[in-house]
Amino acid sequence: MSSCKDDENEKEIALTLSSVKMSHAKIDVPVGDGICDSTFVLTYDLVPAKAKNIESITWSSSNTGIASVSVSGLITSVSLGTSTVTVTVKTTDGKTFTDKCDVTVVPSPIAVESIEFESDGHELIPNGKVTLKPVILPENASNKSLNWESNNYNVVDIDDNGVATAEALGKAIITATTVDGQLKARINVTVVGVAVSNLTLQAPGKSLEVDEEVQLVATLLPTDATNQKLVWTSEDPLIATVDTLGNVKAVMIGTTNITVATIASGHKASCEIEVVPTDLKGISLEDNADEVKVFDDINKDRTLVVTYIPSNATNKNITSWTSNNTAVADVDQNGKVTFKSSGMVSISATAEEGGYSSSLDIDVDYNARINQAKWSIVGYNDSWNGTNTAGPGWSSQATNEGGVDSPTGRVTAMLSDDVNIFWHSSYSSPALDYPHWFIVDLGEEIDVDAVMLQRRQGNGGTAKGYNVKTSTKTNPDIDDPMGGYDWVDRGDYSFDPGNNARQAQGLNDANVKARYIMMYFDTNHKGSSNFTMFATFGLYKKQ
After folding, report:
1. Contact status, residue 516 vs residue 473, Cβ threshold 8 Å
2. Which of 97, 175, 273, 363 could staple 20 via S-S, CB 3.0–4.6 A?
3. Which residues does residue 536 pair with via DSSP β-bridges, in sequence order?
4. Run of H or E including 155
5. How far apart are CA 87 and CA 97, in angstroms?
6. What distance in Å separates the CA atoms of residue 363 and residue 365, rounded to the nearest whole number?
7. CA–CA separation, 166 vs 264, rounded Å?
8. 271-299 in b/e burial notation, b at 16+ Cβ within 10 A?
9. What would the DSSP string read from start to end of 157-210?
10. What is the DSSP string of 372-425?
11. Which residue pairs, CB below 8 angstroms and at least 24 apart, start in 9-15?
12. Using CA atoms, how far apart are residues 28 and 24, in angstroms rounded to an integer?
């Protein structure tokens, strides 16, 4: 039983008035006609719409001398001004709800009674303008808006403000129509002047090459013609274009017609434009340097660039590429040069058109990668695989990077030539800041001309430079890495930590011999982190 009563209580609450909302917050009502239709009827909405506890609904006006309101919300205007109309709803439980609307009584609109032009017409010369101003009565008409129309827009154009523009010789009738009442007035506008009798077009007298430009000359007769406006068109803009001044530009091989026409009289003249291939006048070979330092595993190939003269020449075919010293460099028929050894070489290209040729002399400094089979990290053996601190030939390593059984993180990764593993200086247990270093035993004394490093792939936190030291000492004290080798300082070199590729640098000194080499990363080489992270190390010998 209680459940049924609860449902009935909920229904009663749902049908209890919570608010009233009038249809308008503000409204303007004309004065003087005494007629009130639906436009001036205020309505309201109850919330909820089917509220059951309504006792009474009343209407009131704050100033009945301006506007009165009936029991049904019908507004009657009395005099100019503003009055507030209120709807009041009382409920059976003693509550009152209201809403208001500001009613402004405004003057009744004054209708347009007539429209006419004071003159019979206007005369204009081509391109002339005049603002047409019809007389609208009464002067205090409420809506004087007009719509404008020309019966011949080719002769006289008319805009929304009644400004007439003469376009060509002739006559047009301009009509003004009132928005209020659709009353009409008409006026003649005549365009007078000296008419065009003849139009000729001078052809360029030659074929045009692709991208060549020429200005065509049109002649109007008589020379004092009033309207000398011209329109230029191309029959096929894909072959040649033309602008508003008669400037023609050849686009592609072919033939098209260029036409010029008068706006006023419709006279036309045309000429044929033939676009022919652009002749090649010469070629040249370009390269960023005539002296090239080559590292056989980095940049032994490069493609030369041909410059064509002019740059828009139609035929850019190269029929042959040749090398005058194939022991130093070969070249394929796409201009790709493969360097093979140090020395001078001249690479030549020959064009199909005209047989034009160009050569580029290159002084090649060729450096071959040195075999690493005999190399080792000084003092490293398996006992160091789980140790991060310094050893005889390194400052630190991060064996926790890949785990005890992984080469990743160890200094020995520098000799693997595998970019997927890398040496990382220790970053925990302990975390060590710069300087960092490692020493490589080359197995025998060798000639060294260049050194190479490659960063840990995708990580730019490594060093931005390094120092190279070499030693030829037969029996160094490996327990004294800084003093036991009689190191020779070979200089500092820059490194781009944001580049994934191998980066090689020629040593500052010539004829360097080394049994041991130290790669030293000092505080001035420090990058964006406290650590070094390198994947590959290599040396080169000039060939």
Report:
1. yes
2. 97
3. 454
4. none
5. 8
6. 7
7. 10
8. bebebbebebeebebebeeeebbbbbebe
9. EE-TT-EEEE-SSEEEEEEEEETTT--EEEEEEEE-SPPP-EEEEE--SS-EET
10. -TT-EETT--GGGTT--S-BTTBS---TTTT-TT--TBSGGGGGS--TTS-EE-
11. 12/52, 14/48, 15/48, 15/50, 15/51, 15/52, 15/53
12. 10
- Look up residue 52 and give its two tokens: 């059951």
Both tokens assigned to 467: 């120092």
Asked if 220 and 198 touch (Cβ cutoff 8 Å), the reply is yes
Q: Please, what is the end-to-end C-alpha distance for the chain in angstroms?
A: 108
Sequence-ordered list of residues with C-beta below 8 angstroms from that of 49, at least 6 positions apart, any chain:
none
Q: Up-side HSE of residue 268: CA atoms within 13 Å toward CB?
A: 9
Identify the bridge partners of residue 150 per DSSP, sorted by sequence position. 174
Q: Whole-prediction pTM value?
A: 0.56
Contact yes or no for 82/103 (Cβ under 8 A)? yes
Indicate the SS3 state at residue 152.
coil
Distance CA 277, CA 411 (A): 63
Task: Give 371's contacts (C-beta < 8 A, 6+ positions apart).
Answer: none
Which DSSP symbol is given to 5?
H
Question: Which pair of tokens denotes residue 519?
Answer: 């790669």
Map tokens 């040195």 to a residue.
370
For 124-181, the pLDDT digits (tens) are 887 788 999 999 999 999 899 999 999 999 999 999 999 999 988 889 999 999 999 9
How far apart (Å, rounded) are the C-alpha atoms in residues 335 and 317? Answer: 12
The tokens for 272 are 């044929």
Closest CA to 299 of 452, 459, 496, 420: 452
Residue 80, CA distances (Å) to 168, 226, 242, 502 in order: 53, 59, 66, 90
Order across the sheet with 54-61: list the strands.
26-30, 96-106, 81-91, 54-61
Residue 263 has pLDDT above 80, yes or no: no
Tokens read off for 99:
């809403």
DSSP letter at 138 equals S
- Parallel, antiparallel, or unpaired: how do β-strands 121-124 and 184-191 relate? parallel
Q: Output the six-digit token pair for 40.
A: 């001036």
> Per residue in 313-354, pLDDT tens?
999 999 999 999 999 999 999 999 999 999 999 999 999 999
What letter represents residue 448's amino acid? Answer: V
- Nearest Cα residue to 321 out of 309, 331, 307: 331
pLDDT band at 7 (very low <50, low <70, confident <90, very high): very low
Q: DSSP code of 298?
A: T
Measured between alpha carbons, how far is 275 from 251 in angstroms, rounded to an integer? Answer: 8
Look at residue 186 and give its three-state secondary structure: strand
Average pLDDT rounded to a whole number, residues 39-54: 88
Fill in the DSSP letter of residue 168.
S
Distance CA 395, CA 425 (A): 8
Tokens 């199909």 belong to residue: 352
Match 């039983």 to its residue by tokens.
1
Q: Where are the beta strands (DSSP E) in 277-410?
A: 282-286, 291-295, 301-303, 305-309, 318-323, 329-331, 336-339, 343-351, 357-369, 376-377
C-alpha–C-alpha distance, residues 93 and 327, integer Å? 112
Closest alpha carbon to 86 in 62, 104, 106: 62
